[in-house]
Every structure is written in structure tokens, then in C-alpha cells.
Design brief:
With 437 residues, the protein is mostly beta strands. A hairpin with a 5-residue loop joins β8 and β9. The chain is built from 5 helices and 29 strands. The strands form 5 sheets. Strands 4-5-11-6-10-8 form a 6-stranded mixed barrel. Strands 15, 16, 17, 21, 22 and 26 form a 6-stranded mixed β-sheet that branches. Strands 19-20-24-23 form a 4-stranded antiparallel β-sheet, with no helix packed on it. It has 2 domains: 245 residues, Beta Barrel (Cathepsin D, subunit A, domain 1), CATH 2.40.70; 168 residues, Acid Proteases (Cathepsin D, subunit A, domain 1, Beta Barrel). The chain is globular, with a radius of gyration of 21 Å. InterPro entries: Aspartic_peptidase_A1, Aspartic_peptidase_AS, PEPTIDASE_A1, Peptidase_aspartic_dom_sf, TAXi_C, TAXi_N.
């Protein structure tokens, strides 16, 4: 998940998110009887939602969702690396970045301590509830000192189904009335976060727990900006999808072990466990894998007219050409793909356009960073930059992760205007990237 403004090479912050929110068991008795589907009945359909945003210069992808009665539109940062969905809350709100009329206002819909939802998220680090009728508080703490404090609520989310019907279940989420953002970090431009991790607090898990959708989700992020998010089913031909087993890593979509290939040959780097995280703008490898990738790229550039652009601080490693690059297409011919090889020779290809950005200075910068240097230890994270132009599927029912190359510019129905009418987040002066590992 991201806290706010775009990172520079001199201030990449620690990427861990510490949630004081533990997974909870969805209690169907807390929801209207209409959502109690018969176990033998098939789910009603799937959900496909358009996305806004890009890797650079914004550094995030967001979705607009309608919440409440009457429904109100909120733009949320999509994050497969965290569970709890939360909105900036008019309660009153401290440290909020949206105008008051764009904040979520609770209306006698607090989750109380007596609810099973609350009893499951209480941790030893929290103050215990004094009475069963107290409100259920949450506190998300980030190692880069960003945080969100609030109360759990439940309200209606409105989802359009692909079968032209409307789904409007009550779901639990956080109403964040106290966001703390350090002065060095630009405020987040979105109204909150859509938690899509595989823990039980996530919106996806709640929808599945209500029996209204299959426990499958995914995304397609376009290099041109935008894309789409989907729940319940995937819009890709099954024969084209590369599948790998999903690790049982709580709240995260992880797979492995993977071997790093150097120009199709073994690099000596094996056993990489990889987390797929749409809440990370860039991709991070441990120090050994990062050095191998950097050495490979530098070796491939020998004899080519590129020089280190040390004056460009957009990212740690940048190159300049004989003249400024205008787009990735101008730069990618000098670079070769990075390849992760999983079991049974299933390969995750990261072509140059999925690890490079072209900055406002016209330089090509490496969007693969050392996770070890920013506190990720041995974790490896595949972020937005390397997820672009692929349909990526998280199948929680079969415990597998899949991907296939795709054109993410249009919704699966082929509508080229799917982003029209969707509220667009403003361009931030900077953006800090953070994952909640």
C-alpha cells in the first residue's frame, strides 16, 4: 500500500505495514437475509471495474466505488498487499486530504465490540473494550510513520455485475478519522484504500463469505494508464494462462520458489519467494537478486550509447541516451527481459517496458529496486510496473496465481471509453511507495 507522494532515490522509505487488524470471520447473521445464498446455488455473476492511474508519474492505480445509502463515489487505491479497506472519515477527520463533502460520514452503522467482527480483530496491543457496546476501533501503523486510526463500520457497497444486475451488500470497512502523514511525504490523493489481500478482512473475502461471488479476483494494468479490476471470474482464455501454486502466506499473494534467469540462462539466484502486490508501484528484489539483475543490465549495455544519469534522482539507477527519450519505446531496444522461472518451467517475463520508466528529464530509470536496502529483508515484491499489460489472477479457491499477456486498455467487453465519466485523481508532485508486508 502507498501512503502518499512519489518516492525519489534519496528517500525510499521502509515498506512494511503493521496492521493491528487481524483476520476476522464473516458472520452472515450480521447481514440482510437476502445475501444468504443457498450453498448449491451458483454465484450471480462477476464484477468488472475500470481503473485510473499509472506507474509514472502518479505511482498508483485506483478504482471508483459507490458506498452508502444513497450511494456516493469514492476513489480507492487498489492494494492486493493489504486486507482492510478504509475511507477517510468525516468524524471529524484529522489529517484528511479530501474536501469534507468527499469524506465518508458514518450514520449509526458502527461495528460494536460485541460483534464477532470486532472480537476477531482485537489484539494484545490494543486497549481492551470496556463494554460490549463500545465502538470497535482499528489502528493501522506504518513503519514509515504513516498511520490511519478509525472505527469499523459497515455499509452498502454498490457493484455492477456483468449480467447487468446490481449487487449491494453490507460490508465492513474502516472509517479513518485520524491519518498521520510525515511532513516529508506528500498526502495521498485518494479517499482511501481498497484492501484486496487474501485475509478475511478483505472486501473480496467478505463477498465470498456472503456467497455472492467466487473467491477469484485480478487486475489488468495498462502501461498507457488505467485498466480494469475484476472479481468472481477472469476474462482470459484458460488455455493461455500460466499458473503457479499460491503460498499460504497470510494476507499476501505469494508464490515460489523462482529462479532468476540471465538472458535465458541460470544466474545462480534461486529459491526466490515472490509477493504480487498492486500496492507497490515498483518491483523489489533481495540484494543478491538485485545485484544479479543490475549486473545483467549493465553487461547488456556495454558498447551501447547509454551513460549513467547520476543527476536524475527519480530512481536509484538511471541512464541517458544521446538525446532525451520521449517514451519507453525509444529506450526499450537497449534492454533485455528479466525472467523469473517457477516450477515446471512456468516463466514470468518482465520485458523492458515492465521495469523501466522514462522521467520528465528524458532518462530511462530502472523500476526494479533493492528491497534489502529499504528494509524488506529477503522479501521479493512484484509491483505495478511489472504487472502491467498482463491479466493477473488470484484464484483463492484453487490456491493459485495466474497471468497472461493482454491489452489492458479496454474493459473485457471491448468498450474503448470505459474510463470516461470516472473521477480522475489529480497528479501528485511526488509519491512514496509502501507495501504492507
Amino acid at each position: 500500500m502507498k501512503c502518499g507522494g512519489r518516492t525519489t532515490a534519496s528517500r525510499i522509505l521502509l515498506l512494511f505495514l503493521y496492521l493491528s487488524v487481524e483476520a476476522f470471520q464473516v458472520c452472515l447473521s450480521d447481514f440482510p437475509r437476502i445475501w444468504k445464498r443457498s450453498p448449491s446455488a451458483p454465484p450471480p455473476g462477476s464484477i468488472v471495474l475500470p481503473l485510473s492511474g499509472n506507474v509514472y508519474p502518479l505511482g498508483y492505480y485506483s478504482v471508483s466505488l459507490k458506498v452508502g445509502r444513497p450511494p456516493k463515489l469514492y476513489d480507492l487505491d487498489i492494494d492486493t498487499g493489504s486486507d482492510l479497506t478504509w475511507l477517510q472519515c468525516d468524524a471529524p477527520c484529522t489529517g484528511c486530504t479530501k474536501p469534507r463533502d468527499q469524506l465518508y460520514k458514518p450514520n449509526n452503522n458502527l461495528v460494536h465490540c460485541k460483534d464477532l467482527l470486532c472480537s476477531a480483530i482485537r489484539t494484545t496491543g490494543n486497549e481492551p473494550c470496556k463494554t460490549p457496546h463500545d465502538q470497535c476501533d482499528y489502528d493501522i501503523e506504518y513503519a514509515d510513520h504513516c498511520s490511519s486510526l478509525g472505527v469499523l463500520v459497515n455499509d452498502h457497497f454498490t457493484f455492477p455485475l456483468t449480467n447487468n444486475s446490481i449487487l449491494s451488500p453490507r460490508l465492513a470497512f474502516g472509517c479513518g478519522y485520524n491519518q498521520h502523514i510525515p511532513g516529508s511525504i506528500s498526502p495521498p490523493p485518494t479517499a482511501g484504500v481498497l484492501g484486496l489481500g487474501n485475509g478475511k478482512t478483505s472486501i473480496m473475502t467478505q463477498l465470498h463469505g456472503l456467497g455472492v461471488i467466487r473467491n477469484v479476483l485480478g487486475h489488468c494494468l495498462s502501461t498507457k494508464g488505467g485498466g480494469f479490476l475484476f472479481f468472481g471470474d477472469h476474462p482470459a482464455p484458460p488455455s493461455k494462462i500460466s499458473w503457479v501454486p499460491m503460498f499460504n502466506l497470510e494476507k499476501h499473494y505469494s508464490s515460489g520458489p523462482a529462479e532468476l534467469l540471465n538472458n535465458g540462462k541460470p544466474s545462480g539466484v534461486k529459491g526466490l519467494e515472490v509477493i504480487f502486490d498492486s500496492g507497490s508501484s515498483y518491483t523489489y528484489f533481495n540484494s543478491k537478486a538485485y545485484r544479479a539483475i543490475l549486473n545483467q543490465l549493465r553487461g547488456d549495455l556495454n558498447g551501447k550509447p547509454l551513460k549513467d544519469a547520476t543527476d536524475d534522482k527519480s530512481l536509484p539507477v538511471c541512464w541517458k541516451g544521446a538525446k532525451p527519450f520521449k517514451s519507453i519505446d525509444d529506450a526499450k531496444a537497449y534492454f533485455k527481459p528479466v525472467v523469473l522461472s517457477f516450477t515446471k518451467n512456468v516463466q514470468f517475463q518482465i520485458p523492458p517496458e515492465a521495469y523501466l520508466i522514462v522521467t520528465k528529464h528524458g532518462n530511462a530509470c530502472l523500476g526494479i529496486l533493492s528491497g534489502t536496502e529499504v528494509g524488506l529483508e529477503d522479501h521479493n515484491v512484484i509491483g505495478d510496473i511489472s504487472l502491467q499489460d498482463k491479466i493477473v489472477i488470484y484464484d483463492n479457491e484453487k490456491k493459485q496465481i495466474g497471468w497472461v499477456s493482454a491489452n489492458c486498455d479496454h474493459l473485457p467487453n471491448g468498450d474503448p471509453h470505459h474510463n470516461e465519466g470516472i473521477s480522475q485523481p489529480y497528479y501528485a508532485a511526488g509519491h512514496t511507495y509502501r507495501e504492507d508486508l
